[in-house]
Design a protein that fits this description.
The protein is mainly α. It folds into two domains: 1-41, no CATH class; 56-418, Chloroperoxidase-like (Chloroperoxidase, Orthogonal Bundle). Helix content is 37%, strand content 8%. Bound molecules: protoporphyrin IX containing FE and 2-acetamido-2-deoxy-beta-D-glucopyranose (NAG) (2 copies). This is Heme haloperoxidase family profile domain-containing protein. Residues 1-16 form the signal peptide. Its cofactor is heme b. Residues 37-57 are annotated as: Disordered.
Length: 426
């Protein structure tokens, strides 16, 4: 029975994307290997943190509030490119549909403050079950993320966390397979953005490592927010965050016997750059200051100076977004620059207490070289989305044929323009 199910899946994949097998360079054995053992696939158990048993269920799913003629923002809708012209206030005065509404007990929130805030302002569905198009539109309309990067992040969100490639739905937090999946029996579990070691990795800015906290933790940790604020001295720029990322690497390496710092952690450098590239407020001269950053993170300071989560990840009042779109080229330049200011090793702790480095694309002997070429830099995200990635415990995250086809169909035009070698084989 299991075998029959598996082969019907393979057929579905090939039928859904028959052109993939025909493309030059495609290794058609991928079709056969699809859905072989995938040890990374599901790290949460049913009862565990982030698993389906504890994941909130909101019977009243209301899609995101779209843009209107009165409040057009960047004009981004239906997953298409918007104007790419920022410098306007979000939410606009009078736009009641996008005012802040705190999440209720039935709403799902996860490890990403940028998306949590978007859901709290109804730019994504308020219950946290969102779609590819909502993600692409919201990133452009709120933050003036460039269309190419908005698509790349949405693709990574859906493919690396097992969002559903047929419904194009994704949980921004815990496992909500019953609502994201086209058919849970066929797709298996879809852990959502909480799923570990795909998009969600060790040594986050304000989230605990997975293994040191019982399979959590996508929740905000006030101690870590305080450490980040101290290190950055309330100025969350590249210099400060580079030092802090390095500090977090050393902390995880020392405290977490299962510490794994793989290629996907490059995304954590990207996310860190969002603090000074996407979150700053034009009404504060675009300074990445504490008032702005704490608002997006839902961080409230206590009388003793410590920090707690207030469940109100929100766009600050009178917030004006960035003027020029933040695109694939800009973010990869920041990722590499932040890394190179305070380099650390890619790889993972091993059972005997040593640290194994890895090789992958531009990462050689655990390091990215300062001589990395412009093309290799621009193509980092493309490689993350389309190539096999060494993962935790010597497993390899192999894009399934569906995931690869999905990624290629959404990404190829923009990355081809950047001159990325269009890599289709393993
Ligand atoms: C489709 C788009 C996006 C997806 C799928 C996504 C997903 C994620 C995930 C899975 C994480 C957790 C990584 C980890 O800590 O291990 C994360 C972190 C983060 N994201 Fe996003 N994100 C998206 C867009 C954005 C945007 C537009 C912003 C900013 C405005 C943003 C800001 C952040 C920040 C600051 C973190 C780091 C939080 C921390 O480490 O404490 N993200 N995102
Ligand atoms: C995860 O972090 C939250 C907030 O910091 C905390 O309340 C919770 O106990 C943590 N969970 C685990 C399993 O460590
Ligand atoms: C928060 O992070 C600190 C520093 O890593 C850690 O000692 C503490 O256990 C974490 N708290 C929770 C509730 O997870």
């Amino acid at each position: 029975m299991k075998q029959a199910l598996l082969s019907s899946l393979v057929i579905t994949g090939a039928v859904a994307y028959p052109w993939v097998a025909e493309m030059p360079g495609v290794d058609s054995s991928l079709f056969k290997e699809r859905r072989a053992a995938r040890p990374w696939r599901r790290q949460q158990t049913g009862e565990g943190a982030g698993g389906p048993d504890t994941c909130p269920f909101n019977p009243d799913h209301v899609p995101a509030a779209g843009i209107t003629d009165d409040y057009p923002y960047n004009g981004a809708q239906n997953g298409l490119p918007g104007l790419g012209i920022g410098g306007y206030q979000v939410p606009a005065d009078g736009d009641d549909a996008h005012q802040f509404v705190a999440p209720g007990p039935n709403d799902i929130r996860g490890p990403c403050p940028g998306l949590n805030a978007a859901a709290n302002h109804n730019f994504l569905a308020h219950d946290g079950i969102t779609t590819f198009n909502e993600l692409v539109d919201a990133q452009q309309n709120i933050y003036n993320v460039g269309y190419d990067l908005a698509v790349t992040l949405a693709v990574l969100g859906l493919t690396t966390t097992d969002g559903d490639l047929v419904t194009e739905k994704l949980s921004i937090g815990c496992d909500a397979t019953s609502r994201t999946s086209v058919s849970p029996l066929l797709t298996g579990s879809e852990p959502g953005l909480d799923g570990h070691n795909k998009f969600e990795s060790d040594s986050s800015l304000t989230r605990d490592d997975f293994f040191t906290h019982d399979g959590d933790n996508f929740s905000f940790n006030g101690t870590l927010f305080g450490m980040m604020d101290d290190t950055c001295q309330s100025n969350f720029n590249r210099e400060g965050l580079s030092v802090y990322r390095n500090q977090r690497w050393h902390q995880s390496q020392a405290e977490n016997p299962n510490f794994y710092f793989g290629p996907l952690t490059l995304l954590l450098y990207g996310a860190a750059s969002f603090l000074y590239e996407l979150m700053p407020n034009g009404n504060h001269n675009y300074a990445p200051d504490l008032e702005t950053i704490s608002s997006f993170f839902g961080a409230a300071q206590n009388d003793d100076g410590s920090w707690s989560f207030n469940n109100e990840e929100r766009i600050p009042d009178y917030w004006v977004n960035r003027v020029i779109p933040y695109d694939n080229t800009l973010v990869t330049l920041e990722i590499v620059a932040m890394y190179l200011e305070n380099p650390v090793l890619f790889g993972g702790n091993t059972a005997d207490g040593s640290f194994d480095t890895l090789n992958w694309g531009a990462i050689q002997d655990g390091k990215i070289s300062a001589d990395i070429s412009a093309t290799d830099t621009s193509c980092l995200l493309y490689q993350l989305a389309t190539q096999s990635i060494p993962s935790y415990a010597n497993s390899v995250v192999e894009p399934t044929v569906d995931a690869l086809a999905f990624a290629l169909s959404k990404l190829n035009p923009s990355f081809e323009n950047l001159g990325c070698p269009i890599a289709l084989t393993k």
